Amino acid sequence: MNPANHSDALGRLEDLPADYIADMTALSIAPLWPQLRGLLPRGKPARATQPFVWHYAEVRPQLMRAGELTPIEKAERRVLVLCNPGHGIEKLVATPNIYVGMQLILPGEVAPNHRHTPSAVRFVVEGEGGFTTVQGEKCPMHKGDLILTPAGLWHEHGHEGKGPVVWLDALDLPMVYSMEASYAIEGPSQNARAELDASQTKYRRAGLVPFESLSLKTRTAYPQIRYPWVDVREALNALDKGTPKDAAVQLAYVNPETGAPCLPTLGFSAQLLRDGLDFSPRPRSASSVMHVIEGRGESEIDGVTLKWSEGDTVAIPTHAQIKHRASNGNAYLFHVDDAPTQRALGFYQEF
Ligand code: 1HN
Asked: How remote is the CA of residue 294 from the centroid of ligand 1, in Å?
């Protein structure tokens, strides 16, 4: 006997007497078997997430309109959330496990100090003069910089330059919220230290860390908060030279002292996509969001072709079949994925 031959024939709710269903409902209990296949589909998960692109050329005017309509005092964070249409507007998710928004700050504005249980990162899309202060460390925001605001750390944003500053926020909010564990605490503005951020002093070169940091006594969970794009871009261009034609030119952002992903829940990487070459990453169980730092091209994701250019953001479902191609020059991509969460839960897979 092959159990698989029978397994689709599990009992339905309608097969049960109405009075029995009513009795169970009144007691807040439910039979599992009508829902078992839905909870655990065979072989591959069911996915509501759609492969989808948000074009910056379309999002930007809406964000600028928010700048006119809503003063920062009325918003705290002036953000438009990128909502995957497969989940609808209300869910506020780009993928089931990744929240992504685009945040606008105007000259002189302050997004006040707070800390919260979800972990976040900022990835700078446009503008000069923005900064984020994290636990007293003032991090300048230049285009392409990655800035961490891990769970529990104080953070506030400001803008000392001219013109709009826009960045992408990525958070592990969906999971933290679904755990009924999401909350924030507000605090007075931080006194930023008059020092350069650690990317410019302590962590200048891969493979070298301050000697003192080896002392377990002084170790912190998040030694490096800012990852400047100038360094990442240079490293990608160097890696390009030493990487075979069909291999990924991709660098992961890690904790420089442990080599582990820089946040416990989400992973971040930057990729150089070579002009005109198809690149198919191995399908993975993780979902991801891809942001176009520079260049243009297209991605085929589960049979859907999405064209993209600078500033665009793409949602990629779990288990997706993917093919990327840059055109008219190399492209630089930033990826956020939930592989660290899946690894911690023990089921991360590559196929
Ligand atoms: C948050 O704290 C920020 O600090 C941005 O800039 C977006 C979305 C949901 C929850 C907290 C920020 C956020 C957020």
From this structure: 25
Is the backbone of residue 105 left (phi > 0), alpha (psi -120 to 50) or beta? Answer: beta
The pLDDT assigned to 8 comes to: 67
The residue nearest atom 10 of ligand 1, judged by CA position, is: 173
Residue 25 lies in a domain: no
Q: What is the predicted pLDDT for the residue at 284? A: 98
173 lines ligand 1 (CB under 6 A): yes
- Give every residue of the chain whose pLDDT is below 50, as ranges: 2-6
Tokens of 7: 């397994």
pLDDT attached to residue 217: 73
- The CATH code of the domain that includes 287 is 2.60.120.10
Which of 72, 76, 78, 79, when mutated, tests ligand 1's pocket best, judged by the most ligand atoms within 8 Å of its CB?
79
| 308 closest CA partner among 31, 114, 55, 37 | 55
* Model confidence pLDDT, tens digit, residues 64-115: 999 999 999 999 999 999 999 999 999 999 999 999 999 999 999 999 999 9
pLDDT tens readout for residues 232-277 = 999 999 999 999 999 999 999 999 999 999 999 999 999 999 999 9
Q: Is residue 222 part of a domain?
A: yes
Residue 183 structural domain: 52-345
pLDDT at 10: 93
Confirm or reject: Cβ of 171 under 6 Å from ligand 1.
yes
- Nearest residue (by CA) to ligand 1, atom 9, is 173
pTM assigned to the model:
0.96
CA of 9 to the centre of ligand 1 (A): 46
351 in a domain, yes or no? no
| Cα–Cα distance for residue pair 153/148, rounded to 1 Å | 9
The number of domains in the chain is 1
Q: Is residue 101 in contact with ligand 1, taking CB distance under 6 Å?
A: yes
The residue ranges of DSSP E strands in the chain, in sequence order, are: 52-54, 79-81, 99-105, 110-116, 120-126, 130-134, 137-141, 146-149, 155-159, 165-171, 184-186, 226-227, 249-252, 267-273, 288-301, 304-309, 313-316, 322-337
Residue nearest to atom 12 of ligand 1 (CA): 77
